[in-house]
Amino acid sequence: MNALKQHLDDRLSIYVLVIILSGLMFYYNLVYVPTNERRLNEHALRIIENKARILKDKYTAYQTAMSSAQLSYFVYWYFTLNPDSKNVYLLKKNSAYYYSDSSQLLSGLKYETFTRDEDFAHVRFDRNLIPQVNGPQQQGLDKDIWKVRRGDFYFVYSPEPDFIQIRTRQNKAGKKIHAQDTVFQYFWLKVKSFTANIKSNDFYEDIFLLRDTNDKLNYDQKKLEVSAFDSQVLDESKLGLVRLSLPDNAGKIGVGVYDEKIFGQDYKVYYKLVKLKKGLNVYVLGIVTTSNLQKYARQIPTWFLVFCSLGILILILLFPVLKLFFLNEHERLSALDARLSVFSVVMCASLILMVLAGNY
Length: 360
Prior knowledge:
Blueprint: H1 2-10, H2 12-68, H3 70-81, E1 87-93, E2 96-100, E3 112-115, H4 116-120, E4 129-132, E5 145-147, E6 153-157, E7 162-170, E8 176-183, E9 186-190, H5 191-194, E10 206-211, H6 250-253, E11 255-262, E12 265-277, E13 280-289, H7 290-298, H8 302-317, H9 319-325, H10 335-357
């Protein structure tokens, strides 16, 4: 029994050090890493939610701009689609606008004149909005997204007021008569350009937009321009993804994370449902490889390494002092032990003072 006690006393410092190191390893694997993974997931979802908020605000800003400057955007739309026209004459009646390229068709009425040289050439327009005559009416339903055959996706904006064109045409008898045609005014906005400046981040390896699969039944699948909307990538994926399947309950949850194997590699996929407007829902998706996520979770911050290193160094320096407390009646205190003890106390006090002062 005495031999065991003496054996433990001789190696007590080593045992204490081993126990502390073992405790740190258990803390690292069972507490630190899982906690870090949870924080990384929360951080990733916050990034996606911020991107979704920016996306919705940007989408709404375009609609607000067109609503607040209806005539300016009409001028932009008209002169872009009619490059040979020099003037357009506009008359507002009730909630509709009547326009013509001939002032004679609006004679006797109080109309406004817009010219290419002044109103179109010298006014700044958002050139990302592409004037078009093709849009939701060709689908038979009022939709806000468009896909060019074998091409890109576009958000489609349609100003609120009706623009009615007054023109002359020949009837069956060959006589010229006045005709009124409602013109569908559309502005296409390429989704790829729309999201280009909101993808920058320091966490995700790829961020892109995905069409809400719940909307696919509302589209005329017989039209080539709007077919194959099932979970299709709307802008551009760095990995070259064309479509990606979401969990069945993604639409109900609205935000979440799930595991997916892409091109043979494991990924974490974070998603957020964005309701841009009624009937137009998209997902913002961010993906990161599982291996990189685990690497981030296992990274040890510098401050933690500094404090652990200082703690172990202080413990090692305290070995001579600890020996004083475990001397038995058969051991003697040598002069070397006394000098080492004083040296240990001075060094440990200096290290602790440095830690407290923050000068390490």
